[in-house]
Amino acid sequence: MSSVGFEGSNMETQCKSSTKQNLIDAFWSLYEKKDISKITVKEITTMAGYNRSTFYEYYRDVYDLLDQLEETLMESPMSEIENNFEGTGFESKLRIFSELFEKKKKYLSVLLGDNGDPAFHRKLKNKIKPGLKQTLKEEGLKDETIIDVILEYQVSAMLGIMVYMHTSDKKPNLNEVFEITYDLCNYGIKQTVEKLVQEEKNK
């Protein structure tokens, strides 16, 4: 009897998971096209094939759906950031984040894009910063203001590069982007530009 009950419980869990994902998919197809303030619960449920009461079993409103989706994105696979960032160079961090970004590109490219959610941008920054902060402290930095400035610069650059790499119609060569980013971090803009100009002249 317990086995049957367990199987029934599994089926119910899978059904709920499927229903929730269907609601998310319907919401996302709308969110990609218009501002969240213009999306209604009725639109989502009609597109997903459910009634409004089903929606409210999982979410308080449309904003709660977005918030829960963002939290899920932050937890998995984004939690891998915390385990992999500490003690690695910026180029390595960029490669790690690029791999994670690709897994959730469907959502991240929109949330971090021009018409995305500024709140998610801040959440993601705060998720990434602790590992980077620890690395800076291990290198000898103690001034919290200086550390915060470096973190803001580094993380903002990383996120900006990720969005560009994975959404640009130009399809940039990832290894070239990583190399340029490495040079920017280690030699600064002026020397990197001079190097690139010289390379173009030598072609």
- If you compute it from the alpha carbons, what radius of gyration comes out, rounded to the nearest whole angstrom? 21 Å
- The percentage helix is over 70%
Distance between the termini: 75 Å
Any idea how many domains? 2
What is the residue-averaged pLDDT?
83
Shape, please? elongated
Strand content: under 5%
Q: What letter string, H or E per element, gives the SSE order?
A: HHHHHHHHHH
**Largest sheet features:** none
Low-confidence stretches: none
The structural class is mainly alpha
Total strands: the figure is 0
Description:
- The protein is mostly helical and about 200 residues long.
- It folds into 2 domains: about 1-60, Arc Repressor Mutant, subunit A, CATH 1.10.10.60; about 75-200, no CATH class.
- Helix content is about 80%, strand content about 0%.
- Helix 1 packs across helix 2 (about 40-50), helix 6 packs across helix 7 and helix 6 (about 90-105) packs across helix 10 (about 175-200).
- The radius of gyration is 21 Å and the shape is elongated.
Considering the chains and any ligands shown, give keywords for the structure:
about 200 residues; about 0% strand; Arc Repressor Mutant, subunit A; mainly alpha
